[in-house]
Amino acid sequence: MLEMVVFIVGVYTLVFGQISLPWDLKLVGWRARLASVFLLAPLPIALMLGRVVGRGVAAEAGQSFFGVTELVLVVLGVGGAILSGILTRPK
């Protein structure tokens, strides 16, 4: 679920080329589109993991694994977007 929300924000950022992030970090143009790559990544990764790990894994073990994995992917995606915005900040 969280991956879908982050993916939608990533698509918006990619199309319109602007996003506001925490710490008064407003990204426009190529910097926003670079951040959108990090926002778009968690959903396809989660889908691929679901197909690979879902084969032969017990339902209870799979649910707990994907709950933690979902949170980690979303945090890494948003963290990557913020880090790319900080690192590409104009001097």
Name a few traits of the molecule.
two-stranded antiparallel sheet, 91 residues, 4 helices, mainly alpha, 2 strands
Strands of the widest sheet, in order across it, are 1-2
Poorly predicted parts: none
Oligomer: single chain
What's the gyration radius in Å?
15 Å
Number of helices: 4
Intertermini distance: 37 Å
Give the CA-based shape: elongated
Domain tally? 1
Task: Describe the fold and architecture.
The chain has 91 residues and is mainly alpha-helical. It has one domain. The protein is 74% helix and 9% strand. It has a two-stranded antiparallel sheet with strand order 1-2. Helix 1 packs antiparallel against helix 2, helix 2 packs antiparallel against helix 4 and helix 3 runs antiparallel to helix 4.
Task: Compose a concise summary of this entry.
By secondary structure, the chain is mostly helical. The protein contains four helices and two strands, in the order αββααα.
SSE blueprint and pairings:
Blueprint: H1 2-16, E1 18-21, E2 25-28, H2 30-40, H3 42-53, H4 59-87
Helix pairs in contact: 1-2, 2-4, 3-4
